[in-house]
Amino acid sequence: MKLIIGGAFQGKKEYAKQQFSLQEDQMRDGKEADFEELFRVPCLYHFHEWIQKGLKLGWDFDGITERLLQENPELILISNELGYGVVPMEAFDRTYRETTGRICTKIAAESQMVIRVVCGMGMVIKNA
């Protein structure tokens, strides 16, 4: 697995397309993807929004990292970093931010590569 993180509008998706020779039809928007699509697509962007949707729909995220490693080990995930700035006032927003951070932390630990993109430039954080 590969995890690409960074702030909003920093060029993460375009970086992934160039770096890993991805075509648009190989990429799925997390805002639109259902739970099972995560285990089939080559690349999912807006992973943080996939998690947000899942929280609203009551998806069970337990064991997600292990399942990804078994069923879709070549997956490229692209997610916004959400843990910076003001702590949200709404309880759901705090839960969403914390859940996204915890899931991404587990995925990063198991990923072969983690890249942070800022201003369209990737910085490799991990390359196992």
Automatic annotation (TrEMBL):
Q: Which UniProt keywords apply?
A: ATP-binding, Cobalamin biosynthesis, GTP-binding, Kinase, Nucleotide-binding, Transferase
Top EC class for this record: transferase
Keyword Magnesium attributed: no
Query: Which pathway does the database say it acts in?
Result: Cofactor biosynthesis; adenosylcobalamin biosynthesis; adenosylcobalamin from cob(II)yrinate a,c-diamide: step 5/7; Cofactor biosynthesis; adenosylcobalamin biosynthesis; adenosylcobalamin from cob(II)yrinate a,c-diamide: step 6/7
Question: What terms describe the molecular function in GO for this protein?
Answer: kinase activity
Q: Name one Pfam family in it.
A: CobU
What InterPro entries does the record point to?
CobU/CobP, P-loop_NTPase
Q: Could you tell me what reaction this enzyme catalyses?
A: adenosylcob(III)inamide + GTP = adenosylcob(III)inamide phosphate + GDP + H(+); adenosylcob(III)inamide phosphate + GTP + H(+) = adenosylcob(III)inamide-GDP + diphosphate; adenosylcob(III)inamide + ATP = adenosylcob(III)inamide phosphate + ADP + H(+)
Q: What is this protein called?
A: Adenosylcobinamide kinase
What functional role does this protein have? Catalyzes ATP-dependent phosphorylation of adenosylcobinamide and addition of GMP to adenosylcobinamide phosphate.
Q: What is its EC number?
A: 2.7.1.156, 2.7.7.62
Per the record, the similarity remark reads: Belongs to the CobU/CobP family.
